[in-house]
Each structure stands twice: as structure tokens, then as C-alpha cells.
């Protein structure tokens, strides 16, 4: 005789999964997770965004902060031919710097006995040196000056490593360094063409902290456009005994100029094969591809890399206050993001933030878009527009893979502080299907499965749990709950779902 059973499945806190077979995923993973944020105990509709600065001419392509040890943090954005002070919110005035060729800067901060400075390099204009008040174009005759490099406009990136400023020359194998504790002076070249065997050019240089056997030590990492990584130890390239090459590894071709960031003591690098932590990626002479941070969403990342790897916008940003690692991915019509919860390792896809660049500062998390700088992770709307979130939880077999089940009711546990518009569907047998009906900003009148929007209650104030049974009537061997939400300016959280079903035969 058929026997009715009931099962509770936690919300998909494991996040997005496109690596495993759709028929064999952990029950707490998701086939689709867009604009839901996986947390340790629940998933929530992502937070919103708000215009921080507008009136900017052009696409904002770089945001950075100037943060002196004894001063007030200043925030800047580069767009078109200008650099704007966006420390205060509102409509910007005239740019602090104008007449620039490119707005795609790499930023390096340096503190010396003379003060706190910031260098901005873009590989098209003379480097800009900022002392907290004045922007100075740097060449061989400026004050300070950089000599030895014939054309300073070719400097595209830089690094302060053990008290010395290193400079990356655009489209070359020359890595330059200045005298110690100086922001100018005579530059000396390190010819990386003798080190890298696959050709190409230097993309960037970063610091990597590893355990050298006698405690942690900083090493310098130089990355080539053809995927080679050279690791150096020491502090003085001009002295053989104080400078040594640890090794040269092949990791994979990096994507974009902003392909690497510090992640704790480690270094994360965006490659064609995903985002790799250097410490785990170079455990041996060969690279273990399974240690990529993006391993669980590798198919989507690889597709985006193959299609848009030459498009500007690839960037990593670590927002520690929100336990979030942001991977910005350019697209044809809109830039999207993949975010990892650094507490759990779970991934989600975000849309609606058409970001070209990111900056996490003590003032908040910001992204640039056309003519604006937005503050992210704030409120429950995108500049007064509701947020739409979509999730399909992994297909479950409910005890047996081949036996047919008749699903009669589900009970999702939803907490909200407002009146969201919610559509449900029970997707069966590994076939994703969008729920019937239309999301609306108006309060719905009834609660009907599938063809209508559920939500006859009107909620307000603090979060309240809603746990009503919904009739489904679906016959399938495997099933997963599809949840489509328009938050209507209110927080929405999903913690678990109850399923009631009756097992049938094999046919």
C-alpha cells in the first residue's frame, strides 16, 4: 500500500553548483541561485545598492581610497578623462584631474619619511602622485622624478615590496625598481625575459606571504601574460646575496590587468581556468586545478572567460565586513558578479549591479557604473527598484532514486519584514522550469500554487516567519523547489522546506 511520508530539507546554504551532475548534487546546493545570498543557516535575498555619487562624465572604471595613517579617508573615482573626489555623497563637481587618456588605473600606496603618497598608473598617461592635496604628473624632470625609464607613460602597475617601489612597464618584460624608501629616483630594470620561457609580457607583480620554514615571509610574485609565475625572495635586487629566484611555475593565463589580489597571506589570481589561491595552486611542479576557489562554479566561469576574457571589467574585491569575495565578470549587455561567502565557501550569482569596477574601503563597498558610483550591500532595493531573486534547489530523491513519488504539499519557511511577491514551482526529474504567473509590486489577493502569486498576508516591521502548507500535486522521481521572489523593498529569508509525498511504483 502507498505510504505517505514527510521530509524537511534545509535551504540551499551550499550555494550555486554547476560542477556536479544535476542528478547527484548535495541537497543543500542549488542548480540556480541568482540574487540569493547563502549564509551559514539560511539564504537571503541579497542586499541592495544606493547612488553614492552621480554627475560623473563617462563610465566609472576605477575607484580607490587614499587612507593616510594620521588623516581622513578620501575616495576617488576615474571616468572618461577625469578623476573625481567622491568622498562625500551627492553630485560631483569639476574633476580634480582632467585631460587623462585612460580611466583604468592601478593604485599603489607608499609611506616614506616625507609623508603618505599614492601612485596611480594606467599605462597611457604619466603616473600621478598624490600627497593628500596635490596631484603631480611624474616623468624624468618632475619633482620628484623617475629617471631611467624612457617613457613613464608606459608604467601600468606597481608594487611596494619590503620598502622598495617596483614598476611594471606595459607590454614588456621589464620590471623596474627604485631606491629603497623613495617615491622617485633612478629606476633599474630586471629583465624578466630571461626568466619567463613562454614569452608574452609582465602583467603585474604582487606580494605573497608563505611559510619559509622559519616563520612567515613575504615573497614577490611576478605574473606573465602567458601564465608563468616567478617567485622571488629577498629585499635588494642589486645584491646577489639578498635576492634569489625561488621558482617559476605555470598557473594559466591571467585575465585582465586586475587579475590578482591579496587574500589573507595568500594571493588570488583570475586565470582562464578559474580563480586560484597561489598557495594551494602551486603545491607541486604541476597545478592542481581542483583547488580553484571557483571549482564549484567552474563551467560558468570557463564559459565567461572563453567569451569575454578580452573585455574590461574582470576584477576581484574582498569585502571582509560582509564575508564576501566579489568576482566581477563582464558580459555583452550587463556585467554580473559571482560572490563567495568566505565563511562557508558557497557561491552565488548576482545581477542588477552593472559594475565596471569595485572598491572596498572603510567608507563601505562601492562599484562604478555609467556616470555613477554606487554603494553596495545597503538597504533592500537597487536605487528604489525592487530586487528579483531566483533559486532552484538541488533535485532530491527522497529516499529512492528510481521510485515515483506523488508530491502533494510543500511548506517553505520564509521570514520577511514586508510584503514580497513570491512564485513557487516544484520542478521535477531534473528539468528546470520557471513558475507560472507574474511577479507584482502590489499586495496579492490570494495564495494559489503555480498560476498565482502567493501571499495573502501583509507583513511589516520585524521579520516574521511564514510557514503555510501549499498544495502542489506533482508526480516525479526527483524534485526540487523553485523559488522566484520580488522582494518589494523588504528583507526575505528562506531557512528550510517541508515536503509531503507518497511513494509509488517504479513506472
From TrEMBL:
Name of this chain's protein: Uncharacterized protein
